[in-house]
Design brief:
The protein is mainly alpha-helical. The protein contains seven helices and four strands, in the order H-H-E-E-E-H-E-H-H-H-H. The strands form two sheets. Strands 1-4 form a two-stranded antiparallel ribbon. Strands 2-3 form a two-stranded antiparallel sheet.
Length: 250
């Protein structure tokens, strides 16, 4: 029962963040400093840390953060210096302070996005969910926060970028799963958070005139949500939430 209450608080924090994102999409508020890319990203990190600490406690949270941040930084560095696996690119000064060629914020972003993708898909689906997110927001920031020198094919992004996201997310998932072999079941709230976060990025794409990427991403997120719903209804995946409720009712 105590764990159920903690998880309720944890996801309440994350959904408050989602509500904040959608408020920022209201015409007139869009572009306000309170909803700038920097502010939104900082609040994402805060929401992720609070949610993770409530669901996993300190040790597991720290382990996941270190794995995700280090693996993300490793592949960012190899790509920035060799072009593998993402392709050739460089970051602009808009992302703030750097550690070598990598902005300080990038490892934090890898950790926060990986956490929510892991919660929504666990170890097997996480890499695919991460690529789906990248399809939604990368076209919007390419040429602004980073510049590609590789040839691009998808609205300002090279196909290697998405391959790189899959590889990086897969390595994060594999390493973390080796450390914590029991990943548990998927909480429906995690999937709902993931889809709503993705749709928020679709709306932002529309604001920037990226109609086709927005439509493609919206279709992908809809398919992901429908697939999860069908699998859960047919009993092919179980739910942490259902298990917790069953235990608390005994």
């Amino acid at each position: 029962m105590r764990h159920l209450k903690k998880s309720n608080v944890a996801w309440a924090v994350s959904f408050i963040y989602i509500a904040y994102l959608f408020v920022g999409q209201i015409p007139g508020l869009k572009g306000n400093e309170l909803f700038s890319t920097t502010t939104v990203s900082i609040f994402l990190l805060i929401a992720y840390l609070i949610t993770s600490l409530l669901l996993w406690k300190v040790k597991k949270t720290v382990v996941f953060f270190i794995v995700a941040a280090l693996v993300g930084s490793f592949f960012e560095y190899t790509s920035l210096t060799t072009g593998i696996p993402f392709g050739h690119y460089y970051y602009t000064k808009d992302l703030g302070n750097f550690i070598g060629p990598i902005p300080l914020f990038i490892p934090l972003l890898w950790a926060s996005l990986s956490f929510y993708a892991y919660q929504a898909g666990k170890k097997l689906a996480m890499p695919f969910l991460m690529v789906a997110l990248d399809l939604a927001f990368d076209p919007r920031f390419s040429g602004v926060l980073w510049v590609w020198t590789s040839k691009t094919q998808y609205f300002g992004d090279p196909w290697t970028n998405f391959l790189g996201w899959f590889i990086t997310a897969a390595v994060i998932s594999i390493i973390f799963s080796l450390i914590y072999q029991k990943s548990g079941s998927i909480d429906p709230r995690a999937m709902l958070f993931y889809v709503l976060f993705g749709i928020d990025n679709c709306i932002s794409d529309l604001y920037d005139g990226l109609r086709i990427p927005a439509l493609i991403s919206f279709i992908i997120f809809s398919i992901i949500l429908i697939t999860f719903y069908v699998l859960r209804k047919t009993g092919r995946i179980s739910s942490n939430l259902d298990m917790a409720k069953s235990i608390s009712s005994v």
